[in-house]
Amino acid sequence: MHRQPVVFKNISELMERVGLPSPLHPLITLVNYDKNKPAVDDAGSQYLLHFYKIAFKLRFSGKAKYGPGAYDFRDGGLAFVGPNQLVELSDDLDEHEGYALYFHPDLFYKHPLASRIHRYGFFSYSVTEALFLSEKEKHVIKAVFESIAAELGTQTDHFSHDVLVSQIELLLHHCNRFYHRQFLTRNMVHHDLIDRMNAFLNERFEKKEALVSGLPTTQEIAGHLNISQRYLSDMLKSLTGQTTQQHIHLKMIQRAKEMLGSDMLTTADVAYALGFEHPQSFNKLFKQKTGLSPAAFRKLLYSN
């Protein structure tokens, strides 16, 4: 029988449930697993958190459960959980090594970070897309974590809140930088994903499968590649400068130009074959991307 996830609305509830010290601040806590190990009475249970979690492993040989998969921490790195995502508690105490930072969105409710944090796509990545770190990068992240720990251990004053939010922002900036490096240095893996995506799009358009299935979506492609939509988009943006949607449109326009070169097909035939419900939508997008209507493009082809 499938068990309902245990919901935690605040950090204090979670700390009490797993037998860890109460947070020094109600909206943020940093757990050092070298000093405190959680209770595993709920092993195998799924938790749904209403706050953020960043897990940091310096060195570790094993796998940490996260969502439907597991993240291999052999080389150390970071894994991210956003609000309302499921995590599973492991019964292996050896997996609880390093640090875990928890912070509630209310911490920066009136701060610009509240509107900016959604730009950090890695909170939407799946477990297999976690951030691997070099030794130098581990030292950078560890220094930020230690700064947060020091601030939490300092008596609260008028500046405490702004300092904590600034430290979280600094951490997120470093993570963004290191993810960009990861995209660029794992070119072989990522170019294989791009090749598989292009093969998926080519088959969809060339075999006229779009006539039945409709225009390919980002969700479909990400599912086919077994990666999250946000990771796919960020990877493409980093490597090609295009979003997934822009890439889909590029492949579709290329195929449309080939099909318009045939005098056997009407513009409406081309539109339906590419997955459009209405030819007008195809005409509008084609002109937006090429500067010409499909009819004007076809006329230009036959005038040469």
TrEMBL record:
InterPro entries: Homeodomain-like_sf (IPR009057), HTH_AraC (IPR018060)
The name this protein goes by in its record: Helix-turn-helix domain-containing protein
UniProt-recorded Gene Ontology molecular function terms: DNA-binding transcription factor activity; sequence-specific DNA binding
DNA-binding in keyword set: yes
Family annotation (Pfam families): HTH_18
Keywords in alphabetical order: DNA-binding, Transcription, Transcription regulation
Annotated TM spans: none
Organism name: Dyadobacter sp. 676
Keyword DNA-binding found: yes
Gene3D superfamilies: Homeodomain-like
All residue ranges annotated as the HTH araC/xylS-type domain in the record: 195-300
